[in-house]
Design brief:
mainly alpha
């Protein structure tokens, strides 16, 4: 393998999804928590299937958050910011941290467009969960 191929492999390993490690750790913790719930429910007299179902119900809100974390990489705004960050790293010799800060500043108008859409944020007078995004668990 020549030197240019080696440097490409190193570049791709450095550009891995920044949330990947956190998502993996969160999934591992949820799996452990689920197993502990199953054990506790079985100790309380539940059969294995019912214990697993009840344990799943207990971790469902956290599982939903984990799903959102894993989907963030497919979000168009997130992808645009990351593409801009990569351009700063490749073209302007920024390190990853300063490139990310610069990319967010450069794409700030996109973030502001989202914040202008007030329907996503309940006002103080009408602060109910009906206006918020929630998992469809029916």
């Amino acid at each position: 393998m020549n030197e240019s191929n080696d440097s490409k492999e190193n570049d791709s390993s450095e550009k891995c999804h920044p949330w990947g490690v956190l998502i993996h750790e969160a999934a591992t913790e949820l799996r452990t928590k689920h197993n502990e719930f199953v054990q506790n429910f079985e100790n309380d007299g539940f059969n294995n299937i019912d214990a697993m179902k009840q344990a799943f119900s207990e971790i469902l809100p956290e599982l939903y958050r984990l799903q959102l974390m894993s989907e963030i990489g497919r979000d168009p705004l997130h992808r645009k910011i990351m593409k801009t960050r990569d351009a700063f790293v490749d073209g302007d010799d920024f390190d990853n941290d300063e490139a990310l800060v610069a990319a967010v500043k450069k794409r700030k108008f996109l973030l502001e467009l989202i914040l202008e859409d007030r329907q996503h944020f309940p006002d103080e007078e009408n602060d109910d969960e009906d206006n918020a995004c929630a998992p469809n668990v029916s």
